[in-house]
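Running log. JK asked me to keep both predictions on one page so they can be read side by side. First protein, sequence followed by its tokens:
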Amino acid sequence: MKPWNVEICDVTLRDGEQTPGVSFTPDEKKDIATRLDAIGIEIIEAGFPIVSVHEKEMVREISRLGLSAKICGLARACREDVDASLDAEVDMIGLFIGTSDLHIKFKHKKPREVVVENALEQLDYAVDHGLIVRFGAEDASRTDPDILVDIYRQAAGHKADYVTFADTTGRLTPLEVAMVMKDIIPRTPVPVAIHAHNDLGCATANTLIAAELGAFQLHTTMNGLGERAGNARLEEVLVSLVLKGGLTRYDLTEIPALSEKIQEYTGIYMPATKPVTGANAFAHESGIHIAAILENPETYEFVPPELLGLERRFILGKHTGKRALMHILTSFGYNTITDEQVIQVLEKVKDRSEGKCSISQQVLREIISRVTGEDLINDDTIRENSGCPGRDIY
């Protein structure tokens, strides 16, 4: 399989911080940027420098961290925004204008030709000052494709390095993205970036289909932060690029810790069933599944937990089978328990689970003690071996 020709521009520090109620401290921003760099992210959009003096200074500090990633600042197509990005010492600028009829009429309130002409002047100014320029079409998904391609071609003629297709309102489905990418990419002379929002829950899928069809720069946020329902999720996009796109240059073992840090910094926590970073992403309860996984994990896993530096876990519950329970007990040091006792423990585990009682370390110990008449190991040993302190699953 030929690897997909893509790069990541992570916008957690900009679009992600536009999540309602989210604001990163300077130390948090630098920590996130450093962790993104450790993964191998090619471009980090560090902020929107014109927003405030504080924001500009923060982008400048990230620019001075000496990271391998290029640092990008977002800017409207106006001189003061470009100057703010220059002051922030960024490598790249994401210059944008609204291109749909709706944005032209109600936001810019000027003829399209005037809006585009002014934007191209700012593009020239940014290029003349040595910036890599990504020329963005906001609300591209509601812009006539022929008009969009014409704007892209003009931007390329003024030495833009990329152009952006932004599904600003998250209105597109994967089939719609496929149709538009097949149309505009062959007609656009510079690489296309895809910026997808998640209002219909399609941002990650839309980003991946765009990548498969030739979009080069993929915009993501960690944990799917962003305006309203957020953006394409970095963790899901990266895993897909490795398993579907044939890429090997990203260090995915950095993802779990970054996800946890983002949750800590924002107070926005991932549901247990969240792909890649959810607590249950690599957990199994079904006896049928676990029995097969013990023979070969590929039977019921497409994403190997080892890819992220994690281990699979087996949950004790109503669907647990004898073999899974024996595996858990053996791994915890219960080597002398008999088959008959295992069956009794399993019956009690199922009874407790039917009553919606979590099978915690303490509950499991109590069950085993009642069945065997002795306390074989203590809670600390179970907790240490579980690799999951304080959780009710193993």
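And the second, directly underneath as requested:
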Amino acid sequence: MSIDWAAFGVDLHLEFDPASGRRAGLERALREAIRAGRLTPETRLPSTRTLALELGLARGTVSAAYDQLVAEGYLSARTGSGTVVADLAGSRAQAARPAADVPALRHDLRPGSPDVSTFPTAAWLRATRRALATAPMAAYAYGDPRGRIELRTALADYLGRARGVLAHPDQIVITSGYVQALALLAGVPDGAVLAMEDPGLSFHRDVVRHARAEVVALPVDERGARTDLLRTPAFAAVRSVVVTPAHQYPTGVTLHPHRRHTATTWARERAGLIIEDDYDGEFRYDRQPVGALQGMAPDHVVYVGTAAKTLGPALRLAWMVLPGRLVEPVVRHKRHTDLHTEAIGQLALADLITSHAYDRHIRACRLRYWRRRDLLVNRLGRHVALHGIAAGLHAMVSLPTAGPSEQEILDRAAAHGLALGGLGDHWHSPGDHPPGLIVGYGTPNEGGYLAALDTLARVLGGSPRS
């Protein structure tokens, strides 16, 4: 028996890759055809002799390829019936499902990401080369759960001069991104009750709950998180609070000085813990960046920073500055979570910081995002109410309650190929909340930003250009 392979869109008459061998090439071609649904379940394959003649292969090569795919579950060999394509779970549904008629995404103004095209590739390569040239052999083995001492030392200096953080390298723990840091803190101690800002990122609430901690909503107003409520009976069980003091997400407000003092006073009186999420604290446009809350009460504040907004989320590098009493329990928890964060990126980042290439990159990005913020304000400021524009990589747009709903605006944007963030998903619970949009002006690359603003202006009913 022979198959008209072309009818299935399968090219088995191919130049097999010498590096992988003829058998591997045949296995790969059949495997991909089955995964893609071009060879459907119950399709009978030719005998090993027939296929060997057709492809000019040894019969043993085809037989070995069939045996391998049978072992992997892609094929099924039946006595008296030959070899057929196995019925992979869901393969028919996937093959038959039509493509959804969704407009192509042309402009991305969702919050949460920097312009990754600004990643300092050349500087990172130089830093990596220097780091690898001088790294001890121990850097390639299993390491300290706290992270490489080179990076912890560099961060202690950088955070002190750039963010006002009081840190010693022994107090710093490197994590695989902010999410891991939050999960570790939520799990120490087990069964904790954490207050988290409302509105705030829902995914972070999910992370905390996944760590078996309870979440209590802490309202946010025009002065930031309502830390004054921490002393009320409703928060009596709370021993930890997560705040974004420099630039609250998503409202963009900076925590008022009185609220900062109230939070640290509560922490001292109740032996509480403040988790400071300083996700974009370096990007301030109206004055010098506001110093970290940690400097006011280092024994009661865990400072958490990340390279996700300054360099890029792909690095998966973040850091915690812990009060001394928490270092050992957090390190013990991390050791049982992932043992330690990868070391090569840590060494490269340490070199980037100590060579001051990191500072230069942040200054350049601050100017770039400042210009983008100004373009956003000039283009839309006369048509909508913008909030949180003094810092960060996003702005919040208040929508009139009498106008189109938040979801209608999001749907209209999607029809124009524009992705935005909605405020609705950020509330802890459903209710009659003010509608709004979250516009991330850091996400688009430089060439697409103006076009994205034009589209956003049309969606909101303003003139494309002013």
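Observation for JK regarding the second prediction: The radius of gyration is 28 Å.
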